[in-house]
Amino acid sequence: MDKEMVKAIRLYLNKTQADFAEFLGVSVSYIGRVEIGDLRVNPKLKAKIISRFDMNDDFFAFYETMRRIT
């Protein structure tokens, strides 16, 4: 999982950085720094995302499309 996937998950859920941070129980600045690449996606963040978000086929189709157009 990398910064692009974190951002894709947030966008797929149609959340702002603030909403996504609250959803995961982390700070807004943390999400912002992960998305711009100042911080790496660490195991704790991965675990929080995995426990709260189902990475299903619809998400992966969205992610692949997003990667192709960026």
TrEMBL record:
Q: Which organism is it from?
A: Fictibacillus terranigra
Query: What sequence ranges are listed for the domain HTH cro/C1-type?
Result: 6-60
* UniProt-recorded name of the protein: Helix-turn-helix transcriptional regulator
Write down the InterPro entries for this protein, in alphabetical order: Cro/C1-type_HTH, Lambda_DNA-bd_dom_sf
Superkingdom assignment: Bacteria
